[in-house]
Design goal:
12 strands, five-stranded mixed β-sheet, Nucleotidyltransferase, domain 5, alpha+beta, 16 helices, single chain
Length: 448
């Protein structure tokens, strides 16, 4: 099984140069579409050390034929729509991989190492990178169709993570803001954590975390300067508060009126989706969750009134929500919000998350009232973030995070002669996310 099947005379220099993978030699039996290959060390007498014990008492035990998909790049061109296209050819690589036996440690057998493809992946790194770069801005299925590759859901995670690690390695060190925000995002029923910096000129999103667990949040927060953060604007969740308290023991923790209104709106949306079927108003989610005085016409108000007349539970929730929004537009305090919470009838359990938040985070809500007024852009920017995530087509977390934070340059600041990244300004981030969402939905996805 370990006998060499090829000699150096079987190597094709022309095919090897065409393939262009360091350390990989193409054989003369290769064709335009299928390259038969061996590693350069195949013809060397040097012994590969055992990865377990380091012994060089190793010998070839068998040779296994592994199949990879690869891509060969050609020239670039630009079409009449301004899209840059690079010619390519997808090929098959048959790699004769040697497995070696170690005589020094219980006859262990191990494969010779390769660096042109990841373990268990049927794509070369070169093709994986092309698929990942395309999936940053387009759907994985369409990218695979564009390159003529089967769309394997099992492979997308490893493909994306490898490329993400590469792009992350190019990022500048992160800067620590004085005012930090931690909020929860719901994306196709999964919960994620968004970290942002509140600066004088806007909100800068720093990262999105894979869950809302205390350990995950704390791991990120420990990358920041614990002495610099003065205020943490947070969603009322125990894991967020606990992580922030450990990371920034000297900071103030604040739950804002924007957060209270966002929780109330989410509760309203649940009730609308349950009780508002066939409601006689266009864009009912928006129409039923904004203040009545902001509606565009008396006709729309009448349609809402007519629709609510036959839906008593929805009308009850609508009236309660309107009263909360009206009260927070004026001078309010913790007692007035608490009074509103305790006036909620049992028929509206969707507001329980908000009720718990008000009861359990009294000090954080009071702290907000004691601090200076937030800038006018704050609630608009937070809502823009929520809307952009809501509009993103479904994908796994790695793809979501890459599309949000690794397809656009981060804003930077210079301190002590060094550049640090602030994150991505909300306006740029949401515009980029919305553009990517539109790319995925439109038929021109093939124009990569």
């Amino acid at each position: 099984m370990g006998k060499r099947l090829y000699r150096k005379s079987n190597v094709s220099r022309e095919r090897t140069d065409e393939l262009g993978i360091d350390g990989l030699l193409a054989l003369k039996e290769s064709t335009d579409d299928c390259f038969c290959t061996v590693h350069a060390r195949y013809f060397e007498d040097d012994k590969l050390p055992c990865p377990a014990c380091g012994s060089q008492k190793t010998r070839t035990s068998k040779v296994v034929r592994r199949s990879f998909k690869d891509i060969l790049w050609g020239e670039e061109s630009t079409n009449e729509n301004g899209f840059t296209h690079r010619k390519f050819r997808v090929i098959d690589i048959v790699f004769h991989q040697r497995y070696l036996r170690c005589d020094g440690c219980s006859d262990i057998v191990f494969p010779e190492p390769i660096d042109f493809g990841d373990k268990g992946c049927r794509y070369t790194n070169r093709l994986s990178d092309a698929l990942a770069d395309g999936t940053f801005r387009f759907s994985y299925k369409k990218v695979c169709a564009y390159y003529g590759i089967p769309a394997s859901t099992a492979s997308i995670g490893p493909i994306m993570r490898r490329r993400i690690q590469h792009r992350e390695s190019q990022l500048k060190p992160i800067s620590t803001p004085k005012r930090l925000g931690i909020m929860q995002i719901t994306y196709y029923r999964e919960l994620y954590t968004v970290i942002f910096a509140l600066l004088d000129d806007g909100i800068y999103c720093m990262d999105i975390l894979p869950d809302t667990f205390e350990g995950t949040i704390l791991e990120f927060l420990r990358r920041l300067d614990s002495t610099r953060v003065e205020t943490v604007y947070m969603d009322p969740l125990e894991d967020i508060r606990n992580a922030a308290a450990v990371a920034f023991p000297g900071a103030e923790f604040v739950v804002t009126d924007e957060c209270i209104l966002r929780y109330a709106k989410n509760a309203m949306l649940e009730i609308i989706h349950e009780d508002g079927k066939r409601f006689p108003v266009k864009f009912k989610d928006n129409a039923l969750t904004i203040q009545n005085r902001l509606l565009q016409s008396d006709y729309e108000r009448k349609r809402i009134k007519d629709g609510l007349s036959s839906r008593p539970r929805l009308k009850l929730a609508y009236d309660k929500h309107q009263s909360l929004m009206d009260s927070l537009q004026e001078e309010w305090n913790y007692e007035s919000v608490s009074e509103w919470i305790h006036s909620l009838p049992d028929e509206l359990p969707e507001f329980l998350n908000l009720s718990d938040a008000v009861d359990l985070f009294e000090s954080e809500i009071r702290c907000f009232k004691e601090k200076e007024k937030l800038p006018d852009f704050y609630p608009t920017a937070i809502q823009a973030i929520c809307d952009a995530f809501h509009g993103m087509p479904h994908c796994i977390f790695d793809v979501l995070r890459a599309r949000c934070f690794l397809t656009i340059s981060h804003d930077t600041i210079e301190m002590d002669g060094e550049k640090y990244r602030l994150g991505i300004h909300t306006s740029r981030l949401t515009q980029n996310m919305n553009n990517i969402s539109e790319n995925i939905r439109r038929a021109r996805e093939y124009e990569l």
